[in-house]
TrEMBL record:
SUPFAM superfamilies recorded: ClpP/crotonase
Database matches in InterPro entries: ClpP/crotonase-like_dom_sf (IPR029045), Enoyl-CoA_hydra/iso (IPR001753)
Pfam families assigned to the protein according to its UniProt record, in alphabetical order: ECH_1 (PF00378)
Family as reported in the entry's similarity comment: Belongs to the enoyl-CoA hydratase/isomerase family.
Domain of life according to the entry: Bacteria
Taxonomic source organism: Amycolatopsis acididurans
Protein name, per record: Enoyl-CoA hydratase
Amino acid sequence: MHIRYEVADKIATITLNRPEVANAQNSALLDELDEAWTTAAQDEDVVVILLRAEGKHFSAGHDLSDRWPAPKEITLEWIYQAEARRYLEYTLRWRNVPKPSIAAVQGRCIAGGLMLCWPCDLIVAADNAKFSDPVAMMGIGGVEYHGHTWELGARKAKEILFTGRPVTAEEAEKTGMVNQVVPLERLDAETTELARKIAAMPPFGLRQAKRAVNQTLDVQGFYAAIQSVFDIHETGHGNALSVTGYPILAKLDEMKAKME
């Protein structure tokens, strides 16, 4: 099992549990994670969902060694269908679960790791947290769930995509991407305390408040942007298949291996 799931005090805690690979996301982890979100959404005893990660890092992004049950010849059509399901559909479903959700992030949160914390309503970051999306080096303009512009603002989003540099927890708090920055040793305690405060609120009021904010964002174009930029993302895969053949994957693996 790549996910741990626990319920206590009206809080469902979902824990990424692949610390030996910095919680890199293989297909099994994503499927288990989606099952956990669905379970929490349907459990009437759960008021708040808390997403956390075991080990030094929240997530190193997609597990590039996990090739899924793929055909012998990879086509853009196959990539599109597979990613639409596990990346786009999953993340939008988590974002719209009618219960407040909180992500607790420590260490590195790289590329696909952003797709796990951004759908959450609140993010509490440890003071050592760093957020990055370096996949432009693959000829792809960002991960499949394009929250960049909404989370960071247009110019900061371009900066981190163009350069691949990490955003610190303090910088992320200034942009509004992160709600709180806390000492690493206090991350679990502070996040749990926040979840308990929210869980004491009337569930229907929480649901309506979340719906109001999410629908406001959707009216502003969030949902349409996520859908359309996913197609832009897939053209990067098409270019890689036809021209480059993903030679940069080894460099990304090397970068992840050097994470402290």
